[in-house]
Amino acid sequence: MLAQNNAILTITPPHKLVAKRNTSVSTKVAVTLSEGYHANSNTPSEAYLIPLRLTWTPEPLQVESITFPKPHDETYSFSPTPLSVFTGAFDITTKFKVPSGATPGLAVLLGKLRYQACNDTMCFPPKTVEVKLPVEVQ
Amino acid sequence: MRAVYLSLAVAAVVVVLPGCSLSSRTTRAASLKSEKERKPAPEFALKDANGHTVHLSDYKGKVILLDFWATWCGPCKIEIPWFKDFERENKDKGFAVLGVAMDQDGWDVVKPFAHQLGINYRIVMGDDSIADLYGGVEALPTTFLIDREGRIASVHVGLTSKRDFEDGIKELLQTSGGSSVAALARTE
Which residues of A touch B76 (CB under 8 A)? Predict the structure, then answer.
């Protein structure tokens, strides 16, 4: 739906993760929003706003937790009350559990980051970007 | 932004129609294209909330404010109350607001939202096709003012001043189509 603007949000691909069975491991997804733009946080202040969401394919690792940075409360020309947003560069940390039965070897976890961005006067349609996380299960 | 609005206000030119009193003067809206520059607004067929097919040509002869918006769009929420005012104040003067909702989740989210905001004008559900027809519509809100001849008189991308819309609507209602100007003059 609607044309997409690829320059608003970019993701730095995460490094390969070495995951030993029966342990927990973490990875960071580095996100950068272009200057002047914001994305709704994972906990938007208004019900009508679309939150930032990160999801991962369920195998071979299991998600234990996803931690977002503390959002900013910002006011904009279109919002008399502050909105909970992310701006600039920030990391999203995912903690995975490595099951004891995970198959040793290389795999790629596929993440999906869904966001909806605006600037001070206009908004862009929600978009989902893929994140590929190389994993070596040992 | 304030400087832009100030510039637009300064650029506004007041035109007094020959034979008319001051009360019927029109304000030249800075954002309106000249008649030569205007291109025909693309025809479409979209469903409204009741499942009826709405064509742009259904509004032939009217000035139309065509607003591309979505429920997740904060700036759109600022403009919607203005558009309600425009609809209420001008619907008997050959004017209509038509909202094109671009929500991927469809009427399930649009209907309650429209009810909550008390939207008093017609809404249709948009799609990629109409977005393409109207030049891509990369951001919301994007609003088109269409003159009585079905031509795009102005395009507003992003939150625009209420005054800019008002001036554009007023001018299009008064000057768009020779018959409307003549009718206006006869009432003086």
Answer: 123
Only one residue has tokens 């909105």, namely A83
Query: Any residues with CB less than 8 A from the CB of B6 and at least 6 apart, and which?
Result: none
Structure pTM? Answer: 0.82
- Among chain A residues, the shortest Cα distance to B158 is held by A122
pLDDT digits (tens, 9 = 90+) for B14-40: 333 333 333 333 445 668 999 899 999
Dist. CA A3–CA B172, nearest whole Å: 30
- Mind listing the pLDDT tens digit for each residue in A36-73? 999 999 999 888 899 999 999 988 899 999 999 999 99
Mutating which of B69, B159, B162 best tests the A interface, going by the most A Cβ atoms within 10 A? B159
Q: Interhelix angle for B178-186 vs B162-175, to 10°?
A: 90
Q: What is the 3-state secondary structure (H, E, C) of chain A?
A: CCCCCCCCEEEECCCCEEECCCCEEEEEEEEEECCCCEEECCCCCCCCCCCCEEEECCCCCEEEEEECCCCEEEEECCEEEEEEEECCEEEEEEEEECCCCCCCEEEEEEEEEEECEECCCCECCCEEEEEEEEEEEC
The CA distance from A125 to the nearest CA of chain B, in Å, is: 7
Does B133 lie at the interface with A, CB-CB under 8 angstroms? no
Checking ipTM against 0.90, whether it exceeds it is: no
